[in-house]
Amino acid sequence: MRDTLAGLLPPAIRAQPALSTNALPKGARSVRTLLRHRSQLKGPTATVAALAAVSGALSGHLREAVASMVAEVTMVKPGVPHAHNHFANVTVGLYPELSRQARLQRIAADLANARRRSEHPAVLAADRAFAAVPAPILRWGVSLFDPQVRPSQVSGNTVVSSIYRVPADLRLGDAPVVLTAVYPGLSPAMGLTHGVWGVGDMVTVSVHAAESAIGDIDDYVARLDAEL
User: Please, is 68 exposed, middle or buried when counting C-beta atoms within 10 Å of its C-beta (0-12, 13-18, 19+)?
Assistant: First the structure.
């Protein structure tokens, strides 16, 4: 906080109001997949391009008024991994009110700022402290969470999990692997998730949604397809 107030560290993105995508998932669950060559994605990275596309598609699809939106984005932690899942979720603004080029720039800046914050000594110390908490205490803390309570403010109106998996040299037996897709799970306060998965120059954009969060998923995916 001291370094943030002094202007030495960029501030974290604030939580934003919950939307219908944050309601308890109900109704049919659906998955959809879009495929792009990396050269087709207009942005500094595939992650930034996908986030900008999600912003345009989601703000155009939702029936409720959207003044601002944020996404939870997976980001690898700095330092030596001590587990397979060496990542944290960061909040990134989606800026639906901006032009596409301005949106790309703001999203890229948010990701860069989140990276800087994740490398701060205080964050690294907090990770070490959390790792030292005995498992029974962690279990007790988790038991106090009530998944039925819908939050009014959220760190993400949707999730975008983006991973460049391997170069184009992976094989399954005699067959080359040309694409991969995973559909991030839903949670009590998250009814819409996305994945961005790279193998070589092929990028797969996956969508996992509950009917209560998105309604007509084919309409939403058509919007996302057009935005990409």
Answer: middle
What is the distance between the alpha carbons of residues 126 and 149, in angstroms, rounded to a whole number? 27
Can you tell me the distance from the alpha carbon of 113 to that of 182, in angstroms, rounded to the nearest whole number? 27
Please enumerate in sequence order all residues whose Cβ is within 8 A of that of 141, keeping only pairs 6 or more positions apart, or say none.
Answer: none
Nearest to 39 by CA among 217, 212, 181, 198: 198
Left (φ > 0), alpha (ψ -120 to 50) or beta: where does 155 sit?
alpha
DSSP 165: E
pLDDT tens track for 141-161: 999 988 888 889 999 999 999
Mean pLDDT confidence for 98-112: 96
Model pTM greater than 0.90?
yes
How many CA atoms lie less than 13 Å away from 113 in the CB half-sphere? 17
| Structural domains of the chain ordered from first start | 2-227 (3.30.559.10)
Sequence-distant contacts of 117-124: CB under 8 A, at least 24 apart: 117/9, 117/10, 117/12, 117/90, 118/75, 118/77, 118/78, 118/88, 118/90, 119/78, 120/3, 120/9, 124/78, 124/79
H helix runs in 119-216, sequence order: 121-131, 135-143, 211-214
> What values do phi and psi take at 197, rounded to 5?
-125, 125
Whole-number Å distance between alpha carbons of 127 and 78: 11
Please give the helix or strand (H or E) that residue 117 lies within, else none.
helix 100-118
